[in-house]
Design a protein that fits this description.
It is built from 8 helices and 12 strands. It is an alpha+beta fold.
Length: 289
Amino acid sequence: MRKLIISEEEKKQIKSMYGLLIYESTETPITLPHTITIPTWTSSDEDSAHKLEDSQITEHVTPILQQIYDSGKNPKFTNGTMEIIKNGNQFSTNVTLTINESDDGLAYMGLTTRGSIGDDYLNRAWGQITGAGDKNGRSLEWKIKNILSGDNMDTFSHVIDDDIELSQYFVQFTKKEFPPHKKSSQTIINQTSEKKEISIGTDPVKLRDELKTFSKNQPLYDVNINITNQIEITYQTSGSQRIYLSYIYSPDGKLQDVLDKVEMSNVVINKRLLDLDEGIFQGYVVELT
């Protein structure tokens, strides 16, 4: 039989139809290094001109960090720029950030900036880092660990613009809830396996959604699946290749036709047959990489 040649869009449609897209339809895999451009903002005062708000980070930076982390890579910022253009009493600010895969084995999932503009800008900006400019003497490192729930801190860029008297520090930090992914060459010592039990139920769509949601929110490595009256998933929380889970089935009993279409879309899967004696539905719990 001649093998059909289908387009990339058709492959994507097949993956979406059978719940085999690792990324949602609005997402595309991120190639590293990756540059984020924060939308330009305008202001009428100096303080607003150089302040990168938490809301801007949450909207434009955090989702990118999460997607990189979810792909099994540790993100790390390598450069940050800030350009402020003054036109009379108006300011226009442009910020770009460059992210690459971490070279020190840590996952930097937090970002903040500190800086000053105007009189004595160099000393005032540095005082925000050391705590000399804080009324309680608290350094930025203290604030990251005690207020922002961060851990390791790294200052990755320092922007100085003498024309407008700007000094701005870009700082990244790790978070305890995002442990770094381990490379295959790294030895994981005394790592214990975790277990998740998922009820099979009678709704294949609900089962698929539960498997996908669980494996998207919880990084899975070295997965082992056992199917009895429920689905038992044993896994490690770090490793070299992240695994995503889904479920493929055929409501009209044509499971082989579904598998043939999946094969056409070039999806590489490991599968475990779920075939209930009650005949409710038949399908495969699948592992995607």
